[in-house]
Write a structure and sequence with these properties.
heterodimer, A: Alpha-Beta Plaits, 2 domains, 3-stranded antiparallel β-sheet, B: alpha+beta, Alpha-Beta Plaits, two-stranded antiparallel sheet
Chain lengths: ~300, ~230
């Protein structure tokens, strides 16, 4: 089995975001936070924030609109990668979970995955809606923003509040500037990331926005080399990748509880595959490189996901 | 939804697996209820946020004087505050009003605004144009300088006691002494840049009243749109 490097890489990328915010705090670079990161006119923007800023002010904001389009193009290429690589909420949620809780959750997930797999092997169709409660939250946030005239979701956004807490803590040390925000912001984050256990899956409107466009994402998708995969070759009933996927996606046949569009590119499936059959190639249809494993890649027999049909 | 065999090659112990066709939209009754509850919850968050925020007007960086447009479009990204070369842009806290928390506000104890000599780095970095270009320091106003006669040394002890740093600091010629030696503000010339408040020695050296105010303070200007 390959070493589990991805969790460390993901942690480093997430921490790098905080380091970038610290750079802005120290050297007045204006780099900002993930709400908007950049220098002067060249910057990213939170797509939900961009929408809210236009609805909240009841005006068309060219700058926000242009960057929003760029962000959507980014989602088409990266899917929901933000969720696994940048967002601090999964890390915060994990931090507050005991080892027993984590094991119990993993066992429960494996049970669910196996049950669903058996059902589908008998021909059942997974019940997967195109929209879920996250999309209702997204809609509610936008309507509320338009009614009350300020970006409503930003007020409770756990991502924004994480970086805001970091800035407040920094300023508390720098200027000895106490504020109730130092208590309120972390409390909101704890409620969302720890108490509301299913925040990412059931509530997060940012994830909902990503999912609207990740449906069309074909790049960097987990791709299974069916000539080496233990399950597709019939060597065993291996479901290691299905068992570990935090989003309950099925990398082999896209039979999971949730569709491939929910893949957050965390690479856990690729890490755990006992024969290294899973890669996340940039171009669709380019599985494991021939030179790398000396194996034969049979493109035609790769299992098609439902979106390809 | 056809039960065609998958493309797996070779015979396997597991039965041939059917391909999954497009699934239904799958909105259940429970989904509708939860969805409606979510929308109501978000509207409640907006209403509570608005209700718990008083009418207090904050002093915004240049270009953020139209309160409705600013409140509507600031996404609290912290870039204007971070980039400000004089450090005058501070961050508002929940104490300034719930929905104003994390937004930029001017703190003339930390610095004063020189409008970056026309470059407006804050507006340049604002991704949502909550801070707009076009602030004219000869016409527009961040706020208005108001003399606090309880704190101003020129009122309390006479002109001999103060070296009048505020008048020296004001590059717009808005401050002067009247015939009685008391500080007066020319409201047409003052644009609220805060140089006077920043340089005022009152309450930094001789704070007897403990009011926390200086002899001259920038306050919200009613001429700015709400």
């Amino acid at each position: 089995m390959k070493k589990m490097r991805s969790p460390i890489a993901r942690g480093i990328v997430c921490l790098a975001m905080f380091a970038l915010v610290a750079v802005g705090l120290i050297w007045s670079t204006g780099t900002g936070t993930p709400s908007s990161l950049g220098l002067d006119f060249i910057a990213t923007i939170c797509p939900l924030g961009a929408l809210e800023s236009m609805l909240g002010s009841w005006s068309f904001i060219p700058r926000a609109a242009i960057v929003l389009v760029v962000m959507v193009v980014g989602i088409l290429f990266l899917g929901k990668a933000f969720c696994a690589w940048v967002c601090p909420i999964p890390h915060i949620g994990d931090f507050f979970k005991s080892k027993e809780r984590r094991n119990a959750e993993a066992a429960h997930r494996i049970g669910e995955v196996d049950a669903a797999f058996e059902r589908q092997a008998e021909g059942a169709v997974p019940e997967r809606g195109a929209f879920d409660t996250r999309h209702a939250v997204l809609g509610g946030a936008l309507v509320s923003t338009a009614i009350f005239g300020f970006p409503v979701f930003c007020l409770v956004c756990p991502v924004g509040l994480s970086f805001a807490s970091f800035i407040l803590l920094w300023r508390f040390v720098q200027f000895n500037e106490p504020t109730w925000g130092l208590v309120i912001f972390p409390a909101v984050i704890i409620i969302e990331a720890v108490v509301l256990k299913r925040w990412c899956r059931k509530i997060c409107p940012l994830g909902a926005f990503f999912s609207l466009f990740s449906r069309y994402n074909k790049t960097l998708r987990p791709t299974v080399d069916t000539s080496t995969c233990l399950q597709t070759t019939g060597a065993s009933a291996c479901r290691a990748c299905l068992h570990v996927c935090p989003e309950q996606v099925d990398p082999i046949r896209d039979w999971g509880e949730r569709p491939m569009s929910e893949c957050v590119k965390c690479r856990t499936c690729a890490d755990v595959c006992p024969v290294g059959a899973i890669t996340l190639p940039f171009l669709p249809g380019h599985g494991r490189d021939d030179q790398e494993d000396g194996g034969q890649r049979v493109g035609e027999t790769s299992v098609r996901t439902q979106d390809d049909a | 939804m056809g039960k065609t065999a998958s493309g797996a090659k070779g015979e396997s112990e597991t039965p041939p697996l059917p391909e999954v066709g497009p699934t239904s939209v799958g909105i259940t009754r429970r989904g509708v209820v939860v969805g409606a509850a979510s929308v109501v919850a978000l509207i409640a968050v907006g209403g509570i946020g608005k209700a718990l925020t008083g009418e207090a007007r904050l002093l915004r960086p240049p270009g953020g004087q139209h309160a409705r447009l600013f409140d509507g479009s600031c996404i609290k990204c912290d870039r204007c505050r971070s980039v400000c070369p004089t450090g005058v842009i501070d961050v508002a806290h929940v104490e300034d009003g719930l929905i104003h928390a994390r937004t930029p506000k001017m703190d003339f104890r930390k610095g004063s605004c020189n409008f970056c000599d026309g470059a407006f780095r804050c507006a340049q970095n604002c991704p949502t144009q909550a801070l707009t270009f076009g602030f004219d320091p000869t016409i527009d106003k961040l706020g208005m300088a108001v003399v606090d006669s309880d704190e101003c040394l020129l009122y309390r002890s006479g002109s001999g006691m103060c070296s009048k740093q505020c008048i020296t600091a004001c590059t717009y010629g808005a401050l002067s002494l009247d015939e009685g030696g008391r500080l007066v503000v020319d409201e047409d010339r003052c644009n609220g840049c805060g140089a006077c408040e920043h340089d005022c020695p009152s309450s930094s050296y001789v704070s007897y009243t403990g009011s926390g105010r200086r002899g001259i303070n920038i306050e919200a200007w009613e001429g700015n749109a709400s």
